[in-house]
Each structure stands twice: as C-alpha cells, then as structure tokens.
Design a protein that fits this description.
The protein has one domain: Alpha/Beta hydrolase fold, catalytic domain (Rossmann fold, 3-Layer(aba) Sandwich). The protein is built from 11 helices and 8 strands. It is of the alpha/beta class and 292 residues long. Strands 1-2-4-3-5-6-7-8 form an 8-stranded mixed β-sheet, with helices on both faces.
C-alpha cells in the first residue's frame, strides 16, 4: 500500500511538473512572438529603404539625409513590440540639428520579416547590418546608435558581437534577461510568484536560442565597449528600475553620462523625444561624433 501511494505521489508530482513546464513554454512563446504592424509614411526628404541582415532577414527602414552627404549620423533601434514609428520622431529631432539618421524595424516588428524575438541576440544582426549600411551611406562619417530597451540590447549582445558604434545612447535597457523577466513578472505577480516564474522563463534561452541566460546580458557586454555612452532611464520604471540603470552606467568603462528622468515609466521614457531630450542628446552627439 505504501509503495502504491509513493508511486501515485511521484506520478502526480511528475504530472504537475509537466503542466508547469508546458504552461511556461507557451507563455514564453506568446511573449516572444513577433507581430507585423503598419508604419506611418514619412514625407521627403526621408526615403524608405530595404536592407538584409547576415542571415537573410529582410529589414525595412527609413533614412533621413543630413546637412551634408558626409554628415555624422545616428542609427535608431526601437523597443520590443514597437517599430520605427517609435523612433521616427527622435530621428526627426536630430535631423533638424543636421545629422543623418536611419530608423529600422527590427525583425519581428513593423514591416521587417516577422520572427520571434530573441532579446537582442538575433536583433543584433539587424543592428550590425543597418550600422554598416549607414556608415557607407555617410562616406565613413561617425555613426552613433540610440537603442531603446530591446534596441539597446541588440546594439550590445548580438550573435556577431556588439555594433562598433562611435557613441551609444542606451534608453531603458535591461541589465540581463533574468532581471528583465523578474521585473516584468513582479509587475503582474507577487514577488514570490516572480521568483518562481523567472527561472522557468529565463532558462528557456538554452532550447530556444542556444545560449545560457548569462549570454543575454547588456551589463556584461558594455564593459567591453570603449566608446562614450549616455545611459537614460525613467525614475519610475518598474521594468528597468533606477538601480539597474545606475548599474549599467557604472559598468561602462570610459566616458559616460547618466540621465534618470523624473516620474517616467518604462514606456514613457522609451518614447521620450521632447525639447529637453533633443537638447541633451544633441549635446552628447556634438561632443562625441561631431557637429554636422
């Protein structure tokens, strides 16, 4: 009788584990699923461009010429679930200062090839392709990268290495995938629930992307970046809290600046492009990649 009860208990535990793992897999699949979205047309002199990443993924983008054919330029990379609709107003604010700009739809977004998200790994291939295109278009002029959340991760942790940007602006960028998932789970669950859910989701990086969660860590990658960095976060961001933004800033080894915007959430700071934003970003760009 005791042996039968033990066998039933083991069977019930195995069934529960199977159900938990299956549910977490489907949840992660839903979170990572890419979706096409309409992109608003931008008037001339902006032009629509099509690029290709190293693995053949098609990328849609918008290019704005600068004050000169060889003007310094800015590549803009949006956050998860967004598109170049998010970064176009930022680009236009910088184009008004004379810079050239390129905003792309990362894979799985907008009008680019729809794939699942990979938290910066495969999106890094998109970032490198766009950076190379813009560098050539500007005749070798300096190119800065503005990466918002996922876009910042793509600039740092792509499968082919970080983008060789002449300067980096990182907006609401998570330090690593485990913190990113925990914070998002904690926003909808209790802290205890997030503690249980996080490893079930984070360690799917191995079967899904072929890497351990530790590979998806912008805070580790930035330690190897030698250029100037401007780190921006929202003081009310629950997904990337101020402490994590400060840690990312501290990890940058060389010239760096930090701006924690009072009162802004993750979504709000990710979409910021007001006059103060343009003033601060413009000043950073003039000091690092030059005046157009």
């Amino acid at each position: 009788m005791l042996g039968r009860r033990f066998s039933l208990a083991i069977g019930a535990a195995a069934l529960l584990l199977f159900l938990v793992l299956t549910a977490s897999w489907f949840l992660a699949s839903k979170i990572a699923a890419g979706h096409a979205s309409a992109v608003a047309p931008v008037p001339p002199p902006a032009e629509q461009v099509q690029l290709a990443a190293r693995d053949g993924v098609s990328l849609a983008g918008t290019y704005w010429p600068g004050r000169r054919p060889d003007a310094p330029a800015v590549l803009l990379l949006h956050g998860v679930g967004a598109s170049r609709n998010q970064t176009a107003p930022m680009a236009e604010a910088l184009v008004a200062q004379g810079y050239a700009a390129l905003a792309i739809d990362l894979r799985g977004h907008g009008a680019s090839t729809i794939t699942d998200h990979s938290y910066g790994l495969d999106e890094g291939l998109d970032a490198r392709a766009a950076f190379g295109w813009l560098k050539a278009r500007q005749h070798g002029a300096k190119v800065a990268v503005i990466g918002v959340s996922l876009g910042g991760a793509a600039a740092l942790i792509g499968r082919d290495g970080m983008v060789p940007a002449d300067a980096l602006v990182l907006v609401a960028v998570f330090p690593d995938i485990r913190h990113a998932i925990y914070n998002r789970m904690a926003a909808v669950l209790t802290a205890a629930g997030a503690t249980l859910a996080e490893p079930l989701l984070s360690f799917q990086a191995l079967p899904r992307y072929g890497v351990w969660p530790g590979r998806i860590a912008p805070i580790a990658a930035i330690r190897d970046y030698s250029g100037p960095v401007f780190v921006i976060g929202g003081a009310a961001d629950r997904y990337t809290p101020p402490a994590e933004t400060r840690a990312l800033h501290r990890a940058a080894p060389n010239r760096k600046a930090l701006w924690l915007v009072p009162g802004l959430s993750h979504g709000e700071v990710s979409n910021l492009h007001d006059a103060e934003w343009a003033r601060r970003i413009g000043g950073f760009l003039r000091e690092t990649i030059g005046t157009p």
